[in-house]
Each structure stands twice: as C-alpha cells, then as structure tokens.
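Budget justification note: compute hours in this period were largely spent on complex prediction jobs such as the one shown. Inputs:
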Amino acid sequence: MADPVEIKVRDHGPYKVTGPVRLIDPEGNELEVDPERPIALCRCGHSQTKPFCDASHRESGFDSCVRARSLDG
Ligand code: FES
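Corresponding output:
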C-alpha cells in the first residue's frame, strides 16, 4: 500500500502537501504540479499565485499556529 498523502500545516504559513496529488480547479481542470516535489498551498489568502503559496504570508502578518487536538474532546 502506498504511503498516504501528507498535509502539514506550517506555522503562520501554507499547507505543505507531500505525495502524489491531483490539484483541480472549480471547473475541473487540473493544475500542473511536479509529482516529485511537495507543494505549498496558500492558507493566508494573500498569495498572488493561488492556490499556491508565494510567501506573501510573511509580509501580511498572517498568524496561525494549528495544533492537533483529540477528536474525543
Ligand atoms: S500561506 Fe503563503 S502566501 Fe498565503
């Protein structure tokens, strides 16, 4: 069985996605990504290259540190 895709939430930054993924726009068209490299998806909303991160989060002061919590409550 193949390793699952990993999505890592970066502090004050993007989602880093590692693994073979298909990235599809709302019209069903596939965005080109290098299958051998992780991709960074914008989480702050300020990127000029959405859905990809362009490091604008650094200038925008985006502040978010997500930590896992138990689903049990
Ligand atoms: S998370 Fe990097 S530009 Fe938005």
